[in-house]
Amino acid sequence: MATSIKVGLAGFGNVGKGTYDVLQRNKDLIVKRSGTDISVKRVVARNTARVVPLVAEDVIVSSDWKDIVNDPDINVVVEVMGGIEPARSLILEAISKGKHVVTANKALLAEYGNEIFAAAEKAGVNVAFEAAVAGSIPIVKGLREGLAANDVKWIAGIINGTCNFILSTMRDTGRSFADVLAEAQQLGYAEADPTFDIEGIDTAHKIMLLAAIAFGVPVNMQKVHIEGISKLEAKDIKYAEELGFRIKLLGITKNTNYGVEVRVHPALVPNRRLLANVEGAMNAVVVKGDAAESSLYYGKGAGGEPTGSAVIADLIDIARTASVDVSERPKMPTVDSKHNANPWADFGDTVCSYYMRIPVEDKPGVLAEITRIIADNKISIESLIQKEAPQKVHQTEVIMMTHTTKEADVQKAIRTMQELSSVRGPIVLLRKEELH
Amino acid sequence: MATSIKVGLAGFGNVGKGTYDVLQRNKDLIVKRSGTDISVKRVVARNTARVVPLVAEDVIVSSDWKDIVNDPDINVVVEVMGGIEPARSLILEAISKGKHVVTANKALLAEYGNEIFAAAEKAGVNVAFEAAVAGSIPIVKGLREGLAANDVKWIAGIINGTCNFILSTMRDTGRSFADVLAEAQQLGYAEADPTFDIEGIDTAHKIMLLAAIAFGVPVNMQKVHIEGISKLEAKDIKYAEELGFRIKLLGITKNTNYGVEVRVHPALVPNRRLLANVEGAMNAVVVKGDAAESSLYYGKGAGGEPTGSAVIADLIDIARTASVDVSERPKMPTVDSKHNANPWADFGDTVCSYYMRIPVEDKPGVLAEITRIIADNKISIESLIQKEAPQKVHQTEVIMMTHTTKEADVQKAIRTMQELSSVRGPIVLLRKEELH
């Protein structure tokens, strides 16, 4: 593909416009670096009248995505519409016509990636998706190429800016989740319906894609354990801080002896770790490889031009390497992969250390009851503090940190403790990630 | 190059052994990811008897580097000997025989890169050097490919682990430079002759290479302003801390209106910045692009396997993309580049904000004299504190932070102040980098 790349751009929201603007502004640089002229021939958007004044005169703007697929001049389709349909149909049709695809659509790839990657491999085209994970950060390339020599042990990432903004603000101000969410919505950091972000689903899509790349597993959202941040209380953030930790919503995937773990949940991270110091809406991903050891990649996880930067990096890659034999390109696993009959770990087998906050009656013997249950479940206590519960008479809170132990054992201990008459409310359970 | 890669490995120190070990251990993964079998056919090392028991039986070990160049089977030479000769001759001869080269040799490339890159381009082979900058961190690939859409504004990096270990330890313990250097030497973090590291030369080599990639300038070590850390005093680290900064040895390159700056010096970094929190012997590089905005890359900057990880990433890249037309591969600038007649900024034109520590006589009117000189040189003061100098009678120290101003003006002001009879010793000048 030494001649030229003619892009069909599907979607002209924030990311579509950012991609277009950067392509125009840095045209000379990009030609120099890619050895190829990359230009947008068509834009498809719902509201064409809004788009026309924002693009050059020779760009054809229309509202039917089939216009892109049916244009034989277009050799790469950039899909930045988001959502499942019509993005899925567009991508599959583009592939079937031999067009390469660049997409920022994490939800689509995490749900339908196996079908899409298999179709692309059959057709001998690329489906590139640097922009789908952590915006501007070249983590897909980093994993596939920069760290290609490594047997990756685990990946942990702050990959949802909305959640990290909320958690950073809760910590800085001591305010409640609901209060800070409302502010985030006002500032445009959170959407009117914030479910995808705050319930961890967006993080789950992204960590699923990173797991697929790192461990060669097909995508399977059923296997991801997902907890969001909506139930997190300001006081746990404060207690964690006192213990030397910050609470972050992490996407985590590990290649363990009992299978591949993929999980999303708030986690206590030691405050000396660089990841704990990622503040506001920023994203960061830590990768542990056997040779490179720990490395971290940090940057803007969203925004028109930062995400556009990743989209264009994929376009340049396609320009540079489309002549490479398909068999030598980095591959995505598909459901047909032979190694992957059942690569998944059971969530109950997860080994972690834990933070528990147990609201209890303030009377002699309670601590003995609790520590007995903990011991019965083979859990070893690292530290234990009693906190006063100023609002409630005759009640205290026990904050317990455990050594590493099995998730299933902890769940069982909690169920048993929860039945004690001296336990006066739901036990809060958080996981600790040392990241070493 | 779909068939196979036969490596000639020149050097079997820490990095050579790390590369070899990782290639062996992760052979299956690497074949899967590269689509190519990568194996070491020959090792060249001074002490062959030491190497033979460390490699497989079918690896040919000898002590003459020409054995690698003259073996027609070998299609990639990995140079991890270090030093200028014979590395330079080996690389040039390998290129002339049509072999690709992978090297970790920053000193060689920063000094002789123009000659080497020009020869490689002429011969149609790659000279890959991910391992030469920041060890395991895929920053060369990140800049060239991941951020290829960006007009890069500046790069700032902690890219010498020895210096960062010394500075982190000085800050943690309040101990002197000499004292901590001795400890670093004992721990193996610093060499017996630490000049290259502590005087900033190693950092300068690496930032020069990053400048060449980002801005398309030929390498030219004459244009780098270099200050190391050997004169840094514990008290400046303490004062900086009180003001909210940490002192790091940074390699900095900026593309400004007055030319490309490349400089190495200790710098005050605001302690909320992620870069300020990079501790111990770790490395990190921040890149500011017009589209991606700020991104940061962090990891191990040295060590056998971490550096080997980068060497092998380059090998895999060569395996995957050697079929790509040379004109489409990322290029290194050479002295022949047309755009680069004189791309360099004068150091005096550097715009920065500054930290000064001025030892002065404790008497009325001294501050008036100093601030008058500052004002005469069009420098605007951001803050000013007087510190007692407990060891010295009738003497205090003025700590001054300036707003952004021109280096030449600051230098002039310092020369003038230094002549005052009330200034009782050399003025300490440090630069502040906000990194935004």
Automatic annotation (TrEMBL), chains A, B:
Residue numbers annotated as active site: 206
InterPro entries: ACT-like_dom_sf, ACT_dom, Asp/hSer_DH_NAD-bd, HDH, HDH_cat, HDH_CS, NAD(P)-bd_dom_sf
Domain spans labelled ACT: 355-428
UniProt-listed Enzyme Commission number(s): 1.1.1.3
GO MF, one example: homoserine dehydrogenase activity
Residues the record lists as binding NADPH: 106
Major enzyme class: oxidoreductase
Amino-acid positions noted as binding NADP(+) in the UniProt annotation, renumbered to this chain: 10-17
GO BP field: methionine biosynthetic process; threonine biosynthetic process
Binding site for L-homoserine: 191
UniProt keyword annotations, A-Z: Amino-acid biosynthesis, Methionine biosynthesis, NADP, Oxidoreductase, Threonine biosynthesis
UniProt keyword Oxidoreductase, yes or no: yes
Pathway field: Amino-acid biosynthesis; L-methionine biosynthesis via de novo pathway; L-homoserine from L-aspartate: step 3/3; Amino-acid biosynthesis; L-threonine biosynthesis; L-threonine from L-aspartate: step 3/5
Family statement: Belongs to the homoserine dehydrogenase family.
Record-given protein name: Homoserine dehydrogenase
Species per Swiss-Prot/TrEMBL record: Turicimonas muris
